[in-house]
Design a protein that fits this description.
Elements lengths: L1 E6 L5 H10 L4 E6 L11 H16 L5 E4 L2 H6 L1 H8 L5 E2 L5 H7 L2 E6 L7 H10 L4 E6 L3 H6 L3 H13 L7 E4 L8 H7 L4 E3 L2 H12 L17 E5 L2 E3 L9 H7 L6
Parallel strand pairs: 1-2, 1-3, 2-9, 3-4, 5-6, 5-7, 7-8
Antiparallel strand pairs: 9-10
Helix pairs in contact: 1-10, 1-11, 2-4, 5-6
Protein name: Aspartate/glutamate racemase family protein
Organism: Actinacidiphila acidipaludis
InterPro entries: Asp/Glu/hydantoin_racemase (IPR015942), Asp/Glu_race (IPR001920), Asp/Glu_racemase_AS_1 (IPR018187)
């Protein structure tokens, strides 16, 4: 199977690594837009156009599924992507894990970009899936950019600032930006006792459901660990960016051979 993932930058690493963990034989195509990131402040039409460009570049590799591994793109571009590619190519979006968090915890904080925090989209998700939980929306200015550049000091400062806005004793923290999953351990340490809810594992499971595949049970043989990795930066075949290797997810993916 061959699965493409689209994002502005390295936020797609979390979902790609989750797919690699459940199917080490899957060929992955990572298509991002370093010339246009971040997508958060851009207009809906601009995000849609850029996501379509990335998706078309990935689809040229002959995909079985396409993952929109970005919350912003899932908000603005998912309908256009599905109109362009489905039903021939299943398109899986990324939604903050509000539903499972609120189903289990009475108090929930949603960490998201300033553009997403308080948005009609996020408020609609809270209304639909909040389950009566006390939910606090927490803006995280600068966190995605700091993760993207692997700036440890900036990441720590942004995480600390968001933790200050998070109610003490909150039961769960929902990560409303895929970049945040790459620093999940730091976020957990900053909000002790809170369960962390990302989207990567759920996205990987949904991809397998959409294409009728099953995860590998147990360990894999060397022959099964055959999945390749191709990286497209603004449509151009490229090595995995060095910044990706600052995170365990990037190191996991870097071990795969490229097809070209």
């Amino acid at each position: 199977m061959k699965i493409g993932l689209v994002d502005s930058g390295i936020g797609l690493l979390a979902a790609a690594a989750a797919l690699r963990r459940v199917r080490a034989d899957a060929d992955l195509v990572l298509a991002s837009d370093p010339e246009g990131l971040p997508w958060g402040p851009r207009s809906a039409d601009d995000v849609t156009a850029r996501a379509l460009d990335c998706a078309r570049a990935a689809a040229s590799y002959g995909l079985d599924a396409l993952v929109v591994a970005c919350n912003t793109a899932s908000v603005h571009a998912l309908p256009a992507l599905r109109a362009a590619f489905e039903p021939d190519l299943p398109v899986v979006g990324t939604v903050p894990a509000i539903k499972p968090a609120a189903a289990t915890h009475g108090t929930v904080a949603i960490w998201a970009t300033p553009a997403t925090t308080g948005s009609a989209y996020q408020r609609a998700l809270i209304e639909e899936f909040g389950n009566g939980a006390e939910i606090t929306e927490v803006p995280c200015p600068g966190l995605a950019a700091a993760v993207q550049s692997a700036d440890g000091e900036a990441v720590a400062a942004a995480v600390a600032a968001a933790a200050e806005l998070t109610p003490a004793g909150v039961g769960a923290v929902v990560l409303g930006c895929t970049h945040y999953e790459l620093v999940g351990e730091l976020i957990s340490a900053a909000v002790p006792g809170a369960a962390l809810y990302g989207s990567a594992d759920a996205v990987a499971a949904q991809v397998l459901r959409r294409i009728g595949a099953a995860p590998y049970p147990g360990s894999l043989t060397a022959e099964d660990r055959s999945g390749t990795l191709d990286v497209l930066l603004n449509g151009r075949p490229s090595p995995l960016p060095d910044v990706a290797l600052a995170y365990p997810e990037g190191v996991l993916l870097a071990a795969a051979p490229a097809t070209a």
